[in-house]
Amino acid sequence: MPLPSDSGSGARAMSKQFKVLLPTSFHKLRISDELAGCFDAGEGEGAPEPTALVVSPFGKVWRVEVVRDGHGASLGRGWAEFLAAHGVGIGWFVVLRYEGGGALTVKVFDTSLCIKEFGAPAAVMPSKSCKSIFCKPQFIRIFHSNLSEKMMLPARFVKDYVSEECLNSRIAIIFSPIAKFWRVELKNDQSGIFFTGGWSQFLDFHGIKNGEVLLLKYEGNMVFKFKAFGLSGCQKDFKNQNAGIQLNTKKQQETPPIRKRKSNDEKSSSEENKRLKTPVTSPSPSDPSLEKPYQIGTSSWIKKRINTYALEQFLCLAPAFCNQIELRRRCEIVLKTSINSNHSWRVGGLSQKKGSYIIGPGWKKFCTENRVKVGDVCTFNVIETQLWHVVITRRC
Which residues constitute the signal peptide according to the record (predicted)? Predict the structure, then answer.
């Protein structure tokens, strides 16, 4: 059934909400005013009740009324039939997403905390053309303080989707909504697989609180994409959250290895400060977007504003940053602009006498093919020492 267009959906097309299915939720599911507003059909006496076109994993579209009363908005007539047709039970969880054009998609998680498979099993690595919300394995966890130091992956998720090879992995990569990668240690014992080292810093960075819901989508090879839902059930917007970032920065500044690194480099500190003030190697200190040019720790990244020299010759990196990620000798680094893409660029790196590091061979090709210009900012997120994800922010 074709869905109507919605030229005014705009940002509303990203409205999402997480809900727990209680006994009362099977006939009337309370939803946020923001989500309900996506379906408003009109005002005044005689105006029809707005209708959500709930898209079924089986390919059918269900018409569900969006109603309002003195307590707020909810999904009404048609919702119970949708749940019954899909065998959804009490205590399960749903994530509702407005797709535009009056369409509402539903992800269903059962009591194992894993996404419910309808029909064909979820695929770990689907084709690019696959748009189904059930393409990739996913699981949720409702956060509480017991999960702050380590969190166990659901047993069914591990059994069904984690290969034997990955069971021996020591590191998981978590892709944050703010375009940063986090390396989190894995512990595998008789009780299960846990996120451990670096997990608490990841939570602090994103400001996760008790009762909030974590959703992790599995990309394969122990790589995950992460989302979170607040106490209201609405998806959290991390791009506007600076508190968690500041907290994480403070913690990393207090870590002993970094203080030790500074003391070891004390002799060359004046030379490094002079180098960092030059336009060849570092952005201007007055630029508010680059007040902190690099970060060391669980989430390692370095941010560089591209100037003429960097665009046409070499890209220079700070010694302290390179030493911390063990980039100390000539090697080849793989750059990727998308975690899901197979396309990558290989660039050559070379250490200098004073401890700095330059990126040369292959760098100019990367800039050309990605249309990098003078004034653009490149953020290099270190997945591994020789594998970096690059986020390019264009100059306004």
Answer: none
